[in-house]
Each structure stands twice: as C-alpha cells, then as structure tokens.
Specification:
Layout: E1 3-6, H1 16-28, E2 33-37, H2 46-57, E3 61-64, H3 75-88, E4 92-94, E5 101-102, E6 107-111, H4 132-135, H5 137-172, E7 175-179, E8 190-191, E9 194-195, H6 207-216, E10 224-229, E11 236-241, E12 244-248, E13 258-262
Parallel strand pairs: 1-2, 2-3, 3-4, 6-7, 7-10, 10-12
Antiparallel strand pairs: 1-13, 5-6, 8-9, 11-12
Helix pairs in contact: 5-6
Length: 263
Amino acid sequence: MRIAWATDIHLDHADSEAWSVFVGSIQVAQAQALYLTGDLSEAPRLEQDLNRLAEAIQIPIYFVLGNHDYYHGRIAEVEKRMAALTQASEWLRWLPATGPVALSQTEGVIGHDAWSDGRHGDFQTSSIRLKDYRLIHDFADVGEAGRLALLHQLGDRAAAHLAPHLHSALEQFEHTWLLMHPPPVREACRYGPDMADDNWAPHFTCKAVGDLLERVLPTYPDRRVTVLAGHTHNAWVCQPLPNLTVRVGAATYEHPALAEVFT
C-alpha cells in the first residue's frame, strides 16, 4: 500500500496553480491513501477545502487538525463539524472520530490533533505570542491569565483520548501510525538543526502525548509506532525509543507539498 503524507499545507493560502501541483503530486505518487497532520486551512472554509481535495484525489484521507484549523472558530464547534464530515464523506476520516483504522492485518493508524501543551521549555517567560491566542475564540475568552491552563487541559485531553486507542492498536497491529500536529518529544522540535529553546518549545510540542508513548511502548517491545507530525515546518526524524520513530514534515506557506510517500 502506498501512503502519501503531507503536513501544514495551509490550503487557504494556496492559489489554483499550487492546488493543481499538489493534487498532481499525489496522483504521480500513485498513493492509495493520504495522511494529513494538521494546519490544513482555517475554520470558516475547512470543510470546503477538505471536500475539494477529496473530490480531486478520491482516495481515503486520514487526517488530524492543527491550530490554524481552529482560527476564527471554537474548538468544540470545529470538532463537531469534523465528526459530521467523517460520517458524511466517502473519503475523509478525522481520526479522533474513528478510533484505530486497520490498513492491513499488520498495520493500522490512529490520531489526534494533540495541541502544544506548554510543558516543554518555559512558558511563563516565553516571549512568543502565537496568533492562536487571538484568533481561536477559546483562547481569546480565557485571556493571558488562563492560557497555560487551557493548553494543559488540551494536551491532557489528547493523551486521555489516545490512551485506549493506542493500547488497542498495539494489541492488533505490528506497526501503528500515530498522526498528530505538534511533535510529542522536544528532540523532534527543530529550527534548522537546532532543538527548540525554552522560548519556543512550549508552543511547539505536546509533552502529554510524549509521556503517554514513553509509558506505554516499553510494555510492547515487539510492536512499532511511527509518529507523523508537523507544526514546526522543519523536517526531522528521531527515535526516542527502540520501537518509536518520530517524523516531522517540512512545509512552506503557499506551496502545499508531500512530505513523504511510504510503501
């Protein structure tokens, strides 16, 4: 099975030529499925862009959302819409609404948007102010005082959602793909060759999911997990555990492109 993977494609920034190039690259790759790891568009046009892509390539699309996908929306509302889209669409599968999906007898995929949870680095002294905190209504509502608590809540919720699905997938499959938006370990969060410093790391990693993987995977030494993530726009591969590989895809605004094709 040939699976194409792309991340941070920001389709709302892509003109018609960029759309055509991206769709053409999926077709040339002869992909039988597509993985998307977030930052696909923005909330007001998310369904429109996803449906347009699905109609163009007509293969299963397994996806999670990124922070940009919630811009100009509320988290619960966007999640409800993605669950409904998964029910209605022939091709689109938002993984938090599906649970483990079997790709073969030995391989499956799970996923969650995951969110950066502010736990790596030093959030309190960080000078970084993402647009998330203004453009996602939930963050605007809680203000600066409630921001870190909300990030913790979102990270913990992701880990709690993934925990039973991770165990189920590891029981069923020799190899599990885990799709998420931010990388789960700081080692995979890079700017060029350098690991993110204390200023940037709180906004670009989900430690709660990383902790889950570090707890669970040693109890399944004969099973493998490959995490696919994005958010940093910087390609990196690392192996935090013998049976855990984390791959982060590169991305460029206005030019959606495949990160890799897996066979």
